[in-house]
Amino acid sequence: MPFFQSGEGALYYEETGTGPSLLFIPPPALGTESFRQQKEVLSERFRVVSFDPIGTGRSPDHGRREYTIEEWTNDILSLADHLDLEKVLLCGYSLGGSPCQEFALSYPERIKGIILLCSFPEVSTVFLSAKIRIGEWLALKDFRTVMGEGIAISHTKRKDKLGSGLFRSLVPITKPAGWVGYYQSPHF
Known about the structure:
This protein is of the alpha/beta class. It has one domain (3-183): Rossmann fold (3-Layer(aba) Sandwich), CATH 3.40.50. Helices cover 41% and strands 19% of the residues. The chain contains seven helices and six strands, in the order βββαβαβαβαααα. The protein has a six-stranded mixed sheet with strand order 1-2-4-3-5-6, covered by helices on one side. The longest helix has 15 residues, at 126-140. The relative contact order is 0.17.
């Protein structure tokens, strides 16, 4: 399995295809599996790369319970450096859009562009806030199966091969306490 070094340790990543590089940045808990369909289609024209952030999927949590957007941004920089990418095109999904935006602001000389999918600059609605609080509670109680099932269904809208793949990637390898750390970051 391919890993790259960043900050306190190694993080898992996947790459496929040839052409211009496109880095997918997932939200907490989803990791590389959330971009399975995009990888299959886009790898014909792009070098498609994704990684599991700290405590997600195959990346260890390195004992961390808190993970800031700045640290996540530095992980993107470490991955770009590891792959010898001078400039990057980033695609952030959901909360994965926050480190993409921070990367563009912090390293403007390294950015080709950003694509934001269902991303948000802050939690400003009652519905999203409630959804995050429920997720935090489930994670803290270590209800991985319930949380994994809910995330898989809510991010695929159906229980199919993609949803099953997401579920398998979330349970049991992702560390639930790490999920909470993303959302309770003082910088989010």
